[in-house]
Amino acid sequence: MEKANQTNDGVKIGRERIEKMSAEVVDSNPYSRLMALQRMGIVKEYEQIRLKSVAVVGVGGVGSVTADMLTRCGIGKLMLFDYDKVELANMNRLFFTPDQAGLSKVEAAAKTLNFINPDVAITTHNYNITTVDNFDHFLDAIRTGGREPGTPVDLVLSCVDNFEARMAINTACNELSLNWFESGVSENAVSGHIQFIRPGETACFGCAPPLVVAENIDEKTLKREGVCAASLPTTMGIVAGMLVQNTLKYLLNFGTVSDYLGYNAMIDFFPRMSLKPNPTCDDRFCIERQREYLAKPPCEKNVTNLDEAEPEEPLHEDNLYGIELVAEDVDTPTSKSNEKVTTTQSNIAEGLRLAYEAPVANEETSQVSIDDDVSLDQLMAQMSGLSERK
């Protein structure tokens, strides 16, 4: 083990570094509960997480919690991008603490994360990725920021709060053909979403842009003095949890990764869907990625996550409405005049009832026997006879 419990300035940064993850169940092993996923058959080889590199763009309400979770999960390398500073106004959220006010978000986050898990390699990038020069720095960073020097990152996570930054990430990932997750929380703080974008295969952020982007509106004109968006640590934490959960599923190849997963806190509704790319997208790199994907052989294309196989079981096995199928060659017994025809109402779940009751059979009711070979004239004669008897 490499000792890493002190920095050069003498500040304690936590435990010693661990060279190899162990599944040993002891109080001193920070990975025992993570490695249990492997023992339980959820993940084939959990330690592969240490070979992965993830870029988190935006270290705010969602991004800081996302970085925290990935660090605790033992991600190999974490790249943090942000240019903002920690403010006391951020204290309604998770992660940051009042003593960090005034520090850059990436600097404050790196110190906390290094203390939590010194095994994670953390790099910080304190600049605005939307400017021309900084965009090139960002592009180069994610192109060469993999666990192995010179390789691209395995995944980019967008946790920014503005469309301009999302479009910058979208452009960079389309150009480099990098998979990424877009995430967001509504201004009223009671809904959010994540979207998994695979260039050429699914819709990029420019394929179906929001109105502010589609109509080329300047975001700055939408902000009003003294008015800010609402923010709840609960919604931020839920969206961050959805984001990291799907990140782990993607990186470690287990479960189903959601193409789009929403969250409505007012009714606890989690919609899912898939978005196909727009063949007339304004992003030329998106069009190039679409051509490349269409040229792939079918065996290399991903099956849409939301496609479901035909159900093997009967669709209406519960038979809530008491419907019965009777073979034509089976005689149905006639009920007595004072008894109702038996139904399957007893099988209906408690609290439900049939829309109508089965009719009561009456032996005194006149019956008309109709033979399959009876002609229309004969039938009319029988009907006339019944009228005369009445």
From TrEMBL:
Q: Name one GO molecular function term.
A: metal ion binding
State the CDD domains in the record: ThiF_MoeB_HesA_family (cd00757)
Task: For this UniProt record, give its keywords in alphabetical order, as a comma-separated list.
Answer: ATP-binding, Metal-binding, Nucleotide-binding, Ubl conjugation pathway, Zinc
An annotated GO cellular component of this protein is: cytosol
Q: Which Gene3D superfamilies match?
A: NAD(P)-binding Rossmann-like Domain (3.40.50.720)
Q: What does this protein do?
A: E1-like enzyme which activates UFM1.
Name under which the protein is recorded: Ubiquitin-like modifier-activating enzyme 5
Q: What organism does the UniProt record list as the source?
A: Anopheles christyi
